[in-house]
Amino acid sequence: MANYTKLTANLAKKLIAGYDLGKFKSMSPLDGGQANSSMKITTRTGIFTLSVCDEKNKEEIQCLTRVLTHLEAQNFPATRLVTTKTCKPFILHGGKPVYIKEFLPGEVCRDLSPWMLRQVGQTMAKLHGLTPPPGLPGQFPYGLVSFDQVFGVEHPYANWLKKKKKYLETAIDPAMAMGFIHGDIFWDNLLFSDRSLVAILDFEEACTYYKLYDIGMAAVGCCSRNGHFSLDRVKQLVLGYQQTCPLIDAEKKQLKIFMEYAAAAASFWRFRQYNIRYPSPGKKDNYLELSSLADQVHAMDESQFYDVFMV
Prior knowledge:
12 strands; Aminoglycoside 3'-phosphotransferase, Chain: A, domain 2; alpha+beta; globular; 9 helices; two-stranded antiparallel ribbon; Phosphorylase Kinase, domain 1; 311 residues; 2 domains; six-stranded antiparallel β-sheet
């Protein structure tokens, strides 16, 4: 399993010593992602999130902190980075990057209402309209270029992914617009207060890539229920997006393909994470829900999909 850092009160006090946060008061655990050990820290001056990056390296966190700084300058709804007393964006502990953000009150909601989904679409469109920060990667970290990493594994999934990659490489139109994307807008990366979107969280996978990929991944992460897409929910997400950034006809025709691509990529990440990198008997089949979503999208009638969502 991953070597996650055990955050204690004494360690937290040591880590925040280089920040101008005031006296440490208390800490409590947070449900983090798969790459961080995170705690909510309360000090004399406020509440903060402290994250030790157990899987991300120094270069990746340098990119992330540049992204967060850029988003703050653009007044985009995301968490705000706290810099050290010497204005550094992060520190190192045992060779692992550590960074601190302001803690935002609110809640994550698994079941998003139509209004909430439209807000997600609108905010994602605003992100796509921003100029990317300098040094942003030009490929999605677990997109098509990474799929080969599992092809040597003796497992039915490897054959499934080979076929999916071959199809997607011919189906994706490389002329589709690229821009500043989040890449992982799942329901648990969204913060709401009274059903209003407060912030999009966790920009670890941000890059310059196909804008349609971001919409496709948001559809995968926010619009499926019990292993099946809710077409009505996808429609609300897309309606919200188009209120800010209307899709051209060629993009409308490609969205179905990018939804399939995003589902396949997310399934790849889960398979690699829990079957290769950190084998977990309890999670080894977690990829199946997402590979099934990819197949569901592939089976949808193209003209019917276009008629339902795009007119």
